[in-house]
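Ticket #4471: complex job returned nothing on first submit. Input attached below:
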Amino acid sequence: MLKKLLLLLAGVMMLWAGAQSQDLALKGGTILTITNGTIENGTVVIQDGKITAVGKDIRIPAGIKVIDVTGRFVLPGLIDSHSHIALSDVNEATDPVTPQIWMHEALEPDSPQILTTLGGGVTTVKTMHGSANVIGGVNVTIKLKYNRLVEELIIPGVRQQLKMALGENPKRLYGTKGRTPSTRMGTAYVARKAFIEAQEYKAKWDKYEKNKAAGKTDLTPPKKDLKMETLKMTLEKKLSIDCHTYRADEIVWIIGFCKEFDLDLIQLSHCVDGYKVADVMAAAGVFHGGWIDWWGFKEEAYDGSPYGFQIMYDAGVKIVINSDSPDEGRYLFRNAAKVLKYNDIPDNEVLKMITLTAAESLELEDRIGSLEVGKDGDVAVFEKHPLDSTTKCLLTIIEGEIFFDYARDSITSQGGHR
Amino acid sequence: MRRAALVGSFVLGLLLAVTISGAADVILIQNGTIVTVTGPDIQGGSLLIENGKITKIGKNLSAPAGAKVIDASGKYVYPGMVALMTSVGVTGYPGASSDTDEVGVSTPHMDPYDAINPEDDCIEVTRVGGVTTVQTVSGSRSVLNGKSVVLHLGGDLAEDLVCKRYAAQIINIAAREQGKYPSTIPGVIALLRDKFNQTKEYAEKKSKQKETAENNGQDEKGGKGAVPPFKRNLELEALIPVVTGQIPVIFITYDELTVRKAIEIIKEYKLKGIIQARAGVFKYLGKLAQEKIPVIWAGTTALPQRWEAYDKNYHTAAALAAHGVLFAFDSGGRGPGNRNVRNLPVPATISVAHGLSEEAAIKALTIIPAKILGIDDEVGSLEEGKVANVVIWTGSPIQLRSRIDTVIIKGELVPMTSLQTRLYDKYSQLVKERMTKK
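Support reply: We reran it on our side without changes. The output follows.
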């Protein structure tokens, strides 16, 4: 009886474990660790969702699933630090200041964009509010756990980032409606006014909380304001900032603005002119998050130059390649190869732009971005080296679970449709 | 005296400029892997260029006196890529002026040649990216959009660039607008039938008029005889070579329905039809091959539909090749937004990762687009007698990290500079200066 019960219990536990993650070992591949060089004919072991071993002569624990990846390339799951996938809505384009908007409210975990992006070896993305508003919504950093519940996608404990946008988009949108901002001056005013109001709001609440903590009674709490709540969080550095910029003057301006209000500016998105002020960016420690070769599709993007990466790299700017797109995230590795067409930057440094440096821009470098013991079991297996443009992704694994499998998901194994 | 010296140096400069451009007349490329595209590769091969043409390809060619010799050891010599459906030359400066898409549903007489700006920054950016010949189109938003012109991306004046003036007409079979005729696909089809029928009648009337006039001893311009002067219709005149099958017509399509309608119209009017497709070709692979309708494949990077496999579009080029459909890669979207014609190899790269042979991919970037435009006797491969549009690469164009060392257009070395290299030069200097000051 006891034996039966134990068996049942074991069965239930196995089912539970199966639904969560599976221990597995990827054996025989060329491992691009990103942080500790390349390991030929190596093995990566993932247990309970974490990497427990990476190396050449690893003893694979008994009973765990072994996948032979001989001849393949094993690398950390790629990271798109500016994505627009899996969102039912992107832009609350009704007001230049909308920090009350949280992008996780628009997440669609069953979006086919997740599967196509997984098919490019991507495991983590920051999916963002659009650039209509000077202060947009709060972006959400997620793992691409296709078809799971929203709360399973959102990475627990990660500091989310508030989207800001400068330049032509907000001024065109509101200017054509006869509203402020219709100029870059107006944009600066709108941003400054919002954060001054937030400082006042925070002071009121701080005072109230202080009095409350001091045991004072008969206190009336200040009125809650959802816009101000988010900006207060930003002032308290519970949120950081990712700002959409193109021109060099804007880049310098936002760095100064965030200093003025003591805000954590993490990443400049697009940052097409970043190379022109690479010294300023390097000194500020802000990440460049952009494309390699998009240019000229609007006036403020006219000076985009793919050779600019060299200037930024030489100046010590932290460079991240991202997609700014609901569909381009699947080509991060091909865009990384393009960096090498125009710039003399070592291969591994270029791979960092879509792995470790991207993880740093999300403040997740302790969890993702390289293959190291203790990090999340987020792994992509590629047919050939990821900087060989004729390669493709064969397996995408998140925390030990296979979310993309070429053998299952490709048209070649489905007779055309699925 | 000073003035005379100035004039003198100006004349000298002019002479020098002439001799420099003349000096490039004979170029010998040596020791490279010559990828001829239409024939076998030649390892350690040489290629001789004289007077704008490829005059000799082989091994160990000796340099004629005065020839500029380029050593291509360890490098690959390819024909310049040919890009279809671009707006190179008419893109304009954003926010200032773009010269594509004239107003109206039927503007087949619009000629992009009339708007070519040889100083468009796109020209340099595109050619240092290995694309030496482009088809520039007048627009894509109307039903009958207009003519398209083929340009070699070297030359000072618009006329210097021209390879072929009226290379193809462009029809968008899904160009419909709510509340305006035609607002439906059947409306578009009816409009096309009307225009083609009118053109046939017009052409007949025109030739009869000409015949009568000639019989009456008149010249083409009419005159005082018994026949009234002929009233010309520029719109229909632009369609005469289309309905008579003299020039190709490219149908912009979006899905299975529009692909099917394009095939039907091509057959109905016996057009020299070409289909630009971004989806919906899978069911018609056999039909396209059988009818010998070439495809400009623009859908490699299109997102699949919810019910389709994630890599359906990545595999389409391989499927087109397997069924024997003549296809070329599209330049990746048209209109002022696309200044990245240099990324022409990207869809080819993805297709090679997903089943297409590299050989077929290279052909779809060179000789097949040339065939589609009817200029394959001039460009698209490295063959003796062809226009010397030659590019030296550090690796295959299919590898996105491969660099381009040398670009030769119409037998002349093109400076490897563009707006973007000039920006690099300026700001790498400025940033360095500021950093050393600190």
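Chain B has a mean pLDDT of 91. Closing as resolved unless it happens again.
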